[in-house]
Amino acid sequence: MGSDTQYQIPAIEFTMNSLEVDRGTVEWYHLCKKVREACENYGCFEIVYGKIPPQSKAEILSASRKLYSLPLESKKNNLTPNRYQGYLGPSVTAPLYEGFGFQEASNYESLRSFTEEIWSHDQFCTFLSMMKQLDELRDMIHLMILDSYGLEKSSNLIMVSKTLLRLQKYTAPPSGEYAMAAPAHTDKNFSTILFDDQVSGLEVQTKDEQWVKLPISPCSFIFAVGDFLMAWSSGRMHSVKHRVMICGEKDRHSLIASALPIEGSVIKAQKELVDEDYPQILKDFDHTEFFNFICSPEGKAIDSQKQVYAFAGIGT
C-alpha cells in the first residue's frame, strides 16, 4: 500500500521566452545544474511553466473525457497492432486502465485524421498547440541535460526522438477499495512529461524503496527520466519507478508526452560520461529489439526496472 506522505521533489521554474537568447547565460547554466541534480537524485521534478496555462490543460482533459465517453465498440474501432497508436483497453494486469495513443502527436494530418469526428475544431487546435509546446519544453530540458554535462558541442539533442502522446483514464475502483490502476514500472523511453486532473493516484518509489504519493499542481507538469536516458548517462540519471494507485469515486484522467527513439536508433552510453565512478553498465542496444524483448514471455516475467539490465547488462 502507498504511503499517505506527500513527497517533495524539486520544483524548477522555466521562465525563458526564447531558447536562442537564453542558452549560454548564467541563468541558463544555473537551471541546467538544477535539472541535472533533480534527474540524478530523484529521477523526476516538477516543471513550473507559465507558457501553457491551466485552462489549456483543463480543455485537453475535457476532450479526453469526451473521447472515453464513446461506446466501447467505437473505441475498439481504433485498435491497432502499433503499440504506440490507437486504443488500449483494460487488461488482466491493469483492469482499471484505458489509453489512447497518438504517435507523432504534433503532426497535424496524423492527429486530424483520428480526431476530426470526435473533437470540435477548437479542441483540436488546443490539443495541437499544447503538443507543440510540450515538444519545445522537452527539447529545452534535453538541451539543459546536455549542457549540464559539458556536452554542448556533441549534439543538438540527446538523440533524435519522436513524440508519443497518450491520453489515459483510470476508472474509479469499487467503493472503499484502494486499487492498483497502473502496475509499478519504469518508462521505456528517454523521458516523459505529464499532467493530470488533480485526482490523486501517482506514486513514485524513492531510492530507499519507499512508495510515496506525488501530487501535481494544476499549474505544473512532471518530468520523469526513462530507461533510455539512464542508459545514455551511464547510470548517472535515475529512471524513477512509479505506479498509479486510486480510491474514491472519481475516475482519473492524465496526459503523457513520451520522447521515444526513432526507428533504427541504438541506445548507448556517452563516452564522456563513462568513468571510474560511473563505469559502463549496459551494452549498446537497439531499442526495437529491446521492445520486442519486454513484450516476450521472458521479458514480461522480469521486474520492469530490471528489464533493461536483463537485456543489455554488461556480462549478460
UniProtKB/TrEMBL annotation:
Alphabetized Pfam families for the sequence: 2OG-FeII_Oxy, DIOX_N
Keywords assigned = Dioxygenase, Iron, Metal-binding, Oxidoreductase
Q: Which InterPro entries match?
A: DIOX_N, IPNS-like_FE2OG_OXY, IPNS-like_sf, Iron_ascorbate_oxido_reductase, Oxoglu/Fe-dep_dioxygenase_dom
Q: Does the keyword Oxidoreductase apply?
A: yes
Gene source species: Rosa chinensis
Regarding protein family, the annotation reads: Belongs to the iron/ascorbate-dependent oxidoreductase family.
Query: What's this protein's name?
Result: Putative oxoglutarate/iron-dependent dioxygenase, non-heme dioxygenase domain-containing protein
Pinpoint the Fe2OG dioxygenase domain residues.
Answer: 161-264
- Phylogenetic placement of the source organism: Eukaryota, Viridiplantae, Streptophyta, Embryophyta, Tracheophyta
Q: Which GO terms describe its molecular function?
A: dioxygenase activity; metal ion binding
